[in-house]
Amino acid sequence: MSVDSLFEQARFEASLQAGSAPLKLFRDALHDAHTALEYRFRDGEAVTSLVTHHAAFIDQILQQAWQLKLPDPALHAQIALVAVGGYGRGELHPHSDIDIMVLAPEATLRQASEPLEAFLLLLWDIGLEVGHSVRTLQDCIEQARADITVATNLMEARLLSGPRALFEQMREQTSQRHIWPGRAFFQAKWEEQIARHRKFHDTAFNLEPNIKEGPGGLRDIQTIGWVAKRHFGAETLADLVSHGFLNQEEYQALEQGQAFLWRVRYGLHLLAKRREDRLLFDHQRKLAVLFGYQDDDSRLAVEHFMKDYYRSILELGRLNEMLLQLFQEEILYADQLAEPKKINSRFQSRHGFIELTDPQVFRRSPFALLELFLILAQNPALRGVRAGTIRLLRQHRHLIDQGFRQDLRCRSLFMELLRQPQGVTHELRRMNRYGILAAYLPVFGQVVGQMQHDLFHVYTVDEHTLFVVRNLRRFMIAEHHHEFPLCSRIGQQLPKPELLYIAGLFHDIAKGRGGDHSQLGAEDAEAFCRQHHLSDYDTHLISWLIRNHLLMSSTAQRKDISDPDVINAFASQLGSQTYLDYLYLLTVADIRATSPTVWNSWKDALLAELYHSTHKALRRGLSNPVAEGELIADHMQDALRILSLQRIPEKDARALWQRINQEYFLRYNGAEIAWHTQGILQHQGDEPLVLLRQQTERGGTEIFLYTPIRAFQFSTTTTLLDQLGLNIVSARIIPSTDHYTLDTFIVLEGNGQPIQGQYRLEEIRQQLRLLLLNPDQNPARVQRQMARQLKHFSIKTRVLFHDDPHQEHSIMEVITSDRPGLLSCIARALATCEVSLKTAKIATFGERVEDIFFITNQQGGPLSDERQQGCLIDAIVSALEGDNRDDAEHVAAR
Predict the structure, then answer these.
(1) What whole-number distance in Å separates Cα of residue 233 and Cα of residue 240?
(2) Is 208 exposed, middle or buried (0-12, 13-18, 19+ CB in 10 A)?
(3) Alpha helices in 509-627 (DSSP H)
(4) How far apart are CA 741 and CA 738, in angstroms?
């Protein structure tokens, strides 16, 4: 279908001449054309036609508006109307900016100021999103010389109306012969791309990627086109074939990738009804449906769509890297003769880049496909791979078959790479970019581009996996010791760190298959270990780590790790210090690799506490667990030693402790007990005691309250803390025999950091003091707006009850969607149902909340009355689900 079907020029001009209202004519023409283009898009027409037809249609609209507002032929002969930027390339998506430039001598611009203003006002009045500039020839030269973005826009300029001689003069004066020669232009564009990629953490595999600016996106394709045009005079991407930079297969891959991204962007603009380049959750599911993707047993339709998206930008990223490397060799090094430096019979280096000694090397010696990456890891002075060798790598990937994988040389090379003291992560990433890692490990290939559609995992599975390995590697390198001192101390003592890297590679490798990914991944790892001749002990360790890679985080975040029985049970599952060391490092690396924001000081402290407690239990011996009484006595003795330094009499401390339940001394360590005790004994008057410590060994800011017990106190306190913008990650409530309560909250700011600044601490202290002094003046319920991303995930509320093995309390688990004021809602339900809270452990995984509450009845025992459980279920579900209560579930686990 041609562009003529979008705009009937003769009819339009006749209507104008007949006196029809111009605004209505233009608006109707735009509406009809946009409607037709949208229909053609939804009907499956190639987007490459749509973007060019849209640009051609806008050409006609602008030319009609230009003629209408500047009817004087004399002005037409002196003023050029020029399309620039993407519009200059002849590409327009539904809501792309229409960038134009008015070019004329300065005197002419002054003379035509009124009609030019009328022209621009008309464009805005009819609803066009126009970006405009008004320049003289000298302006173009000066601004292009000063700003490469202006030079790039002018390089893509296209004349719409006016004197061609003036236009061509502008093109000549801003060409590489006068400003930004090819070498300088390439260097600037390359640095520009590096800086742009850095804004996205050098990964395209983000949860809500930017399809234009992100790595592998449309801007990378445009960068290739700009350099090719500036230096080589290539007008289209197809010209890269005739210039010898691409073969036909690579050109087709580049064209197909661009067409895929164009289709996504076109649909995104239609759904957003505005210019939008971020592939937000708001639109991912709708685009998946629009493009015909469907759910299946293992993945959602949106996950299928996003996998295709990520694989497309991965391939585009590979092509971008290869082409920029080719350009670098051609532009920067063309006039620099360099003799190759021999590495071995198969490889040599030139200009610091590795290359094959002979194009037939991979065919004669397929194992060299892995050897290349080992050499790069062993020679950090090498800066990369020459473009010709990248192309040969791509062309010979088919040689990596079952026979290749069983070749002892190949298996040895891969294991040797994992054992290198440096470069492991860098080369694994390079192997993934070039498609070699997926070819050598087909199970890894299945997760390349695999996204989990939630807010917890913000990277694709393959990108997350390589981040895990990267985190593990940093634990082994002394220069990074300051980042995680405990992890570094443990990691640098491991006898075989490569076992940890293998566990990292395989821990999520079965995601998206259905079934238990930990079990399936362990089976894949066992096969890998047997194939690579690892010992039975090493194979069992790797398999166990993968099967149990969630064990430590689950124990730390879901159980009361101050309970000696919990620690002993966890230690029994590990059995040895070696397993504890490996699992701790894998757990920290895994959590940190899910998202840049998920790791915080509280998780750090929680896992470290579990590690140290388990280390002590293993050293003591699993057959000789520490008794509660022994632990309580140790905590008391530690507290008394600290108090004596503060000149607090032991008799005063013990007198206070007589009024406090023994469980308190089990849950708190000596330093915490001493801090609480000193605060209470030195507190004057009847006012409630509010203590704050900025950052504690538990990883957050600790708030301690000592006050008479009042109804709904936990509910009102959590509401206030939520209103203050604090995240409660842990809460403990211990009553005294004289009807006081000792409440402790570990809190973080909204950014995941402990509270900073004395003013902020004092603000919180005063607000809590006022609340406790006026218990009848309850704070208003939290009304903060829910985060945009959370609105797109609806998790059915589930309330589950578990029995405590010691029959000391009940354990309630609430699984639901995260939202502002969640904890205060649950706290109100506890108070309404006359249930007391002992400890709360708050765990948020993206949009999903899995909070654990250790609760008792009013007599201090477990909930034996099922009516109380029913009351809690009704109150919590009513508060969280409202009219959707039928969608909620409750389970009493026995």
Answers:
(1) 10
(2) middle
(3) 517-531, 536-547, 551-558, 564-574, 577-592, 601-620
(4) 9
For 678-717, the pLDDT digits (tens) are 999 999 877 899 999 887 777 889 999 999 988 788 888 9
Q: How many CA atoms, within 13 angstroms, populate the side-chain half-sphere of residue 642?
A: 16
- The Cα 456–Cα 652 span in angstroms is 49
- CA distances 754 to 483, 696, 700, Å, are 17, 9, 5
CA 244 to chain centre: 37
Angle 226-227-233 from CA coordinates, rounded to 5°: 85
Give residue 43's region: left, alpha or beta (phi > 0; psi -120 to 50).
alpha
Model pLDDT for residues 247-269, shown as the tens digit of each residue: 899 999 999 999 999 999 999 99
> Quick one: residue 368, left, alpha or beta (phi over 0 = left, psi -120 to 50 = alpha)?
alpha
User: Using CA atoms, how far apart are residues 730 and 304, in angstroms rounded to an integer?
Assistant: 38
pLDDT of residue 889: 46
Q: CA-CA distance, 48 to 51, in Å (whole number)?
A: 6
Provide the pairing of β-strand 889-892 with 798-803: parallel
Residues 6+ apart with CB under 8 A from 690: 703, 704, 705, 765, 768, 769, 772
- HEC-encoded secondary structure of 340-376: CEECCCCEEEECCEEEECCCCHHHHCCCHHHHHHHHH
248-272 vs 47-69: helix crossing angle, rounded to 10: 60
Ramachandran quadrant class, 279 (left: phi over 0; alpha: psi -120 to 50; beta: rest): beta
Query: How many CA atoms lie less than 13 Å away from 231 in the CB half-sphere?
Result: 26
Give the phi and the psi of residue 822 in degrees, each rounded to 5.
-60, -50
Torsion over CA of 743, 846, 446 and 221, rounded to 10 degrees?
A: -140
Q: Which two tokens stand for residue 460?
A: 């694709």
SS (H, E, C) 847-881: CEEEEEEEEECCCCCCCCCHHHHHHHHHHHHHHHH
Residue-wise pLDDT for 813-850, tens only, equals 998 887 777 888 888 888 888 888 888 888 777 667 88
Residues 6+ apart with CB under 8 A from 802: 810, 811, 812, 813, 893
- Residue 672's identity, in one-letter code, is E
The two three-digit tokens of residue 661, written as one number: 């339940």
Determine which helix (DSSP H) or strand (DSSP E) holds 600, and give its type and residue range: none
Q: C-alpha angle 507/607/601, rounded to 5°?
A: 110
- How many whole angstroms separate alpha carbon 815 and alpha carbon 847? 11
Asked whether 77 and 163 are in contact (CB, 8 A), the reply is: yes
Q: Are 880 and 822 in contact (CB under 8 A)?
A: yes
Distance CA 726, CA 15 (A): 64
The first and second tokens of residue 209, run together, are 């990627």
Tokens (6 digits) for 132: 């405009």
Query: H or E segment at 337?
Result: none
Residues with Cβ within 8 Å of 452's Cβ and at least 6 positions away in sequence, in order, are: 303, 461, 511, 512
Q: Cα(672)–Cα(687) distance, rounded to whole angstroms?
A: 22
| Residue closest to 745 by CA, chosen among 696, 701, 703 | 703
- Bridge partners (DSSP) listed for residue 853: 812, 840
Strand, coil or helix: what is 244? coil
How many Å apart are CA 14 and CA 624, to the nearest integer? 99
How far is it, in rounded angstroms, from Cα 697 to Cα 609?
9
pTM: 0.84
CA nearest to 93, candidates 147, 44, 131, 129:
129
Name the residue type at position 129.
Answer: E
Largest interatomic CA distance in the chain = 105
Band of the pLDDT at 780, cuts 50, 70, 90? low
